[in-house]
Amino acid sequence: MRTRTKPLLHVWDWQFEAACRDMDSSVFFPPAGERGRARRRREDEARAVCGSCPVSEPCHRFALTSQQPYGIWGGHTETERRSAVQMMRRR
């Protein structure tokens, strides 16, 4: 039996250019119980990385379409992504 699936590498190839590729993921994902000033400081650090990243837009689109529930993706928090999804659904 032959399948006609296409390789999915092109779906992920943007990650090879990501500014965060070799970074510790803890910059982008909150530890349990993180709140307030510590959370904002970590998020600001992540956004700074995303701000200089050549693939922040594909990263953000990926997080939206795959409904990533946690972390900073393409410079956007999970709360910002949820809001964006809700706005898209209202249209």
TrEMBL record:
<feature type="domain" description="4Fe-4S Wbl-type">
    <location>
        <begin position="19"/>
        <end position="83"/>
    </location>
</feature>
<keyword id="KW-1015">Disulfide bond</keyword>
<keyword id="KW-0408">Iron</keyword>
<keyword id="KW-0963">Cytoplasm</keyword>
<keyword id="KW-0804">Transcription</keyword>
<dbReference type="InterPro" id="IPR003482">
    <property type="entry name" value="Whib"/>
</dbReference>
<comment type="similarity">
    <text>Belongs to the WhiB family.</text>
</comment>
<keyword id="KW-0805">Transcription regulation</keyword>
<protein>
    <recommendedName>
        <fullName>Transcriptional regulator WhiB</fullName>
    </recommendedName>
</protein>
<feature type="binding site">
    <location>
        <position position="53"/>
    </location>
    <ligand>
        <name>[4Fe-4S] cluster</name>
    </ligand>
</feature>
<feature type="binding site">
    <location>
        <position position="50"/>
    </location>
    <ligand>
        <name>[4Fe-4S] cluster</name>
    </ligand>
</feature>
<comment type="function">
    <text>Acts as a transcriptional regulator. Probably redox-responsive. The apo- but not holo-form probably binds DNA.</text>
</comment>
<dbReference type="Pfam" id="PF02467">
    <property type="entry name" value="Whib"/>
</dbReference>
<feature type="binding site">
    <location>
        <position position="20"/>
    </location>
    <ligand>
        <name>[4Fe-4S] cluster</name>
    </ligand>
</feature>
<keyword id="KW-0238">DNA-binding</keyword>
<keyword id="KW-0004">4Fe-4S</keyword>
<feature type="binding site">
    <location>
        <position position="59"/>
    </location>
    <ligand>
        <name>[4Fe-4S] cluster</name>
    </ligand>
</feature>
<dbReference type="InterPro" id="IPR034768">
    <property type="entry name" value="4FE4S_WBL"/>
</dbReference>
<keyword id="KW-0479">Metal-binding</keyword>
<keyword id="KW-0411">Iron-sulfur</keyword>
